[in-house]
Amino acid sequence: MKIYGITDLHGRFPSRIRELRDDIDVLLVSGDITHFGRGMEVIEKLAELKDYMEVLCVPGNCDTEEVIDILEEYKLNIDNKVKKIEGFNFIGVGGSNYTPFNTPLEFSEDYLYKKAKNLCKGLKNIILVSHAPPYGTMLDIVNDEHVGSKAIRKVIEEENVIFNACGHIHECRGIDKINKTIIVNPSPKSFFVYSPSKKTVILEDYIGL
Asked: What is the average per-residue pLDDT within 40-49?
């Protein structure tokens, strides 16, 4: 199984993903699909990929309740859900921890923790699709400060999470680990390719491809 991941589209659909559609088994979209509800047409383009692959999306803090409704309509939303594919449990935790910007989908750490913890209950081989990156990694740094979610980190440390696809912090494109859990933030600049069987992940930039 090949899992691809994208994030922080802000209304812009990456045409490269359409070109690679025959190579993709599962596409993970880690939020900020629209820009405060603008660019809604990107959701329809994601839905068109369902003829070729599984498409699993969570909303980001810059999405809106209307975005969630449309993701539901197209059966793309995995926020607060579990989907099992080939022995792997994909769970979705959308939105983010609080930011200084008062964006539409921000939540307390306690809310995010309880939500994620409940989804993980009794599961193994968890692939966590979140918008917020876990706190204290190379993927959540802004102006030398860690701004990721402590709840997401705690759940990764406590549960059987083997992989976390996240986004949110545009400046922090990269791959990191918490213990044995691989964490990837492809940022708006690239996409990742993850092979669960080989336990390998790579990042590919959109530019020049």
From this structure: 98
At residue 183, the pLDDT reads 98
Interior angle at CA 148, CA 120 and CA 46, nearest 5: 65
Stretch 46-52: mean pLDDT: 98
Contacts of 47 (CB under 8 A, 6+ apart): 55, 74, 76
Model-level pTM greater than 0.90?
A: yes
Please check whether residue 48 is in contact with residue 57, taking contact to mean a CB–CB distance below 8 angstroms. Answer: no
What CA–CA distance (Å, rounded) separates 156 from 153? 5
Q: In 10 A of CB 170, how many CB atoms?
A: 15
44 vs 74: CA distance, rounded Å: 8
The b-or-e profile of 50-77 (16+ CB within 10 A means b, else e) is: eeebbbbbbbbbbbbeebbebbeeeebb
Structure token digits, residue 42: 């990107």
Token pair belonging to 187: 């940022």
In tens, the pLDDT along 4-14 reads: 999 999 999 99
